[in-house]
Amino acid sequence: MLLIVNADDFGYTPGVNAGITRAIACGLVTSVSVLPNQPGTTEALAMLRRGALPGVGVGVHLCLTKGCPLSPPEEIPSLTDKSGDFKGRRALLSDELSGGEVAREFFAQVELVRSYGIPLDHLDTHHHIHTHPVVLAALVKVAKSYGLAVRHLTPVMRAILEAAGVKTTAAFCGDWFAAEATLEAFTVFVANALRRGLSSLEIMTHPGYADRELARLSGYVTEREGELGVLCDPELKEWLRAMTVRLGTYADLLREGA
Fold first, then answer.
1. Beta strands 31-34 and 2-10, pairing class
2. CB within 8 Å of 96: residues ≥ 6 apart
3. How far apart (Å, rounded) are the C-alpha atoms in residues 230 and 28?
């Protein structure tokens, strides 16, 4: 089974970047999703451009719920507030969204990452905003334009992506989070996937070091250090090797058609 251990929020803050970099060095995190509009974005993209994380799969963690857009706010009024920033998740989902505006901003965010010469293999969204049907439709459009895979969140979403010709994993685990982010839970998720005979699985992770900027921006702070500790535990990597699980990236999925 192909296992993609993806670290979300690369580019959030310097502390998050440092934690994700360490998780990659420990050998378990094989893929990252870059937040394109946050305080640590430039640092994260610079690391990727100079090849500091060889072999790591890279995606864009498309964001509509935090920070400033990359498009002029007047061109995406359904997504922004009076100050020109993105609306919060609750406000965004409670209003009518323009699919064209969502696609415009998503293209801008992907192009920012591509401008650094970084090859991409997947797309996903901050705060799982592509649960919204308008956002999902725009995401499919962008993914097909670049030939990228997309993270699915539910079996129904997986079917929609596959019907559109967009690659995704056989299963996705978004439950390795907060109190559930333990070594035991990680092994249970993988063992269940193996028992089902699945060809591929993505496990979403959020490793990082808590810094002041993160405490200002996010409600998920010290928990990231707990995730990092598990992801750097050599016992977990040995267990995966014993289970003949193959660590990889969405690029492997695209190549193999898994």
1. parallel
2. 78
3. 10
Q: What is the pTM of this model?
A: 0.97
DSSP state of 96: P
Task: Write the CB contacts of 192 (distance below 8 Å, at least 6 apart in sequence).
Answer: none
Which residue bears the tokens 């050599």? 234
Phi and psi, residue 111, nearest 5°? -65, -35
- Rounded Cα distance between 100 and 137, Å, is 10
Q: How many residues does the chain have?
A: 258
- Hey, is 7 helix, strand or coil? strand
Neighbouring CB atoms inside 10 A of 106's CB total 27
Sequence letter at residue 162: E
Dihedral sign for Cα atoms in the order 211, 216, 218, 222: positive
Q: Is residue 166 over pLDDT 60?
A: yes
> Among residues of the chain, what percentage have pLDDT more than 70?
99
d(CA 188, CA 196): 12
234 phi, psi to nearest 5 deg: -60, -25
Q: Which residues pair with 62 in a beta bridge?
A: 125
